[in-house]
Amino acid sequence: MFIFFDNKIKPYTDLIRIKTSIMAGFGFILGLWLAYQSKKLNINSEFIFHSILGFIGGFTLSGSINTFNDIKDLKIDIMIKPERPLPKKLVSLKSAKYFAIALVLVSLVITIVLFSDILIVILAIVFLGFLYSVGFQNIPVLKNFLVAFLISTPLVISAWLVDKDIVYSNKKIMNLFTIAVFGFMLFEWLKDLTDFEGDVKHGKITIPRVIGLKNSALFIYTGFILVFILFWNYLANFQLSFIMILLLIIQILILFSSSKILWNQTPKIVDKARKEIYSVFALTILLLFLLN
Fold it and tell me: Model pTM?
């Protein structure tokens, strides 16, 4: 069974960057949860049903964008990421294209059937994801912002479905959305640090190429400090609790992990720090459900 998973399923979970896709799915549920809490609505079967299908929709949409991105980056990944599913030929290029299209279709069907109000928004996200893959990758900051925005969007989309005015009237949701966008931008910059050598050889323009590795590391770490301050400000809206203290400790761990890149910008160290931060960031999202 495990051999079947490693040989047949894992290449596809790697292709969609399953952690990022899960984040997008949970972002939808979190936005829905915050909106229900704000409107003082009871958690009912409709909430559970919409949460499950919303998670699947966010998951498949994010997965399709990540898959299209891997298809576009195949030539670069052959050199700098030979372990990825496409360069390693664990998944054929043709299969990857069909897989990406299938994921998009699943997301669109769910949107049309249950969330038709946001169909235009979902189509716009698909279009922006395609633009990123084919044209925005050589525009520093903009490309990082676009990826972060696409991953974070489910948070506000689901809240908007509950109440179209809540996105503007509820500061908690918008503050959390801002933190999410900025946090994911920092993850993207960490990824650019990891891919520095390959990006240079292929002429890709990134922040590390423009300002250098050490300056980029300092810039990114300063960004994590800012996220910590923003998150502290967000938590100030709640009463002191064990969950709040735990969340603050977790944010300190993020600052500790990200500080490693200040002294060493080698791909191995940066990638290790990025994975540690990503895991802690995922735990933060889960704990936010207990906070609200």
Answer: 0.84
